[in-house]
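F.,

This is the one I mentioned.
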């Protein structure tokens, strides 16, 4: 599993090997999921807009 994550981090996410090893596993998995969505290989579980998170009265 770690070999695959190292491969994803270095080749697909363009990170150095040391940077990939020092990246927290949750962040690395989030970056990989964002990369997959960008390529169209995955769909977001839920699509949200900024207006749903921050109401317009607060802006």
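My design for it:
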């Amino acid at each position: 599993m770690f070999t695959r994550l190292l491969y994803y981090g270095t080749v697909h996410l363009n990170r150095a090997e040391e940077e990939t090893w020092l990246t927290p596993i949750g962040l690395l998995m989030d970056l990989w999921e964002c990369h997959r969505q960008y390529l169209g290989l995955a769909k977001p579980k839920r699509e949200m807009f900024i207006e749903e998170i921050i109401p317009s009265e607060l802006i």
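Helices lie at 2-12, 17-22, 25-39, 50-53.

Talk soon.
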